[in-house]
Amino acid sequence: MRSRNRAIKALALAGVCILNLAGCGAGALDEPINTSAIVLAADGSFTQCRVEAFDREYYQLSELDSMIRQEVQDFVNQRGGQNADGEPLVSVEEVSYLEEDSSQVMVALHFADSQVYEDYMAEVDQQPHELFYGTLQQALERGYELGGVLLDAKKGTVIAPEQLEKNADNLILVFEDELQIRCPSKVLYCSSNVSLTDAGYAQGTGEGLKYILMK
């Protein structure tokens, strides 16, 4: 089987991925994804959506689809297939050409949790990425230092220690890449390298870890 890395020339990290998604605001936002994005669900799972340039001259979409599905299946089989809740660790949501540009393909993978994502990126894509998605309490237990990091999304003021305690069960995302993030609920606090877009999404920029605490 020919290599996926040869079939996919390079990450474009741009394009259109139309999914019915919950946005970072209160309502559903069904706008197409046009940049590298992660779509968070309230249960701790999420979808990674990316667009990649594809060499149609030498490869078929069906080949890429088969390669990705085999990679996912091999990874899942090595880990027992499901998480404690009976959900697939990783699943392929879509592999398709973009309607606007058939030289690009959209690949959407759904991950049961952030640990599965980190393992998959390191072992299958061989491009380690740090990403944590869980409760604030779990983030603290993992060793993340949040004091002085989180700012009020509206006022820009630093969150007080007692406020951290009140939000112990709220979901927080910690990530390192420059990504658009679509959240299942309103963003309450974020780090200074995260901004909220006019469309209601969160956008991480620059270097270093980025933090988003949701309602």
Question: How do the strands and helices of this protein lay out in sequence?
Answer:
Layout lengths: L3 H4 E4 L2 E4 L3 E2 L5 E2 L3 E3 L1 E4 L5 E9 L6 H18 L11 E8 L6 E8 L2 H10 L7 E5 H7 L8 E2 L8 H6 L4 E5 L4 E3 L4 E4 L3 E3 L5 E3 L5 E5 L1
Please provide a written account of the structure.
This protein is an alpha+beta fold and 215 residues long. It has a domain at 4-131 and 178-184 and 195-208. Helices cover 21% and strands 34% of the residues. It contains five helices and 17 strands. The protein has helices spanning 4-7, 61-78, 114-123, 136-142, 161-166; strands spanning 8-11, 14-17, 21-22, 28-29, 33-35, 37-40, 46-54, 90-97, 104-111, 131-135, 151-152, 171-175, 180-182, 187-190, 194-196, 202-204, 210-214. The strands form four sheets. Strands 1, 6, 7, 8, 9, 13, 15 and 16 form an eight-stranded mixed beta sheet that branches. Strand 6 and strand 7 form a beta hairpin. The longest helix has 18 residues, at 61-78. It is globular. The termini are far apart. Mean pLDDT is 83; it is low at 9-18 and 20-29.
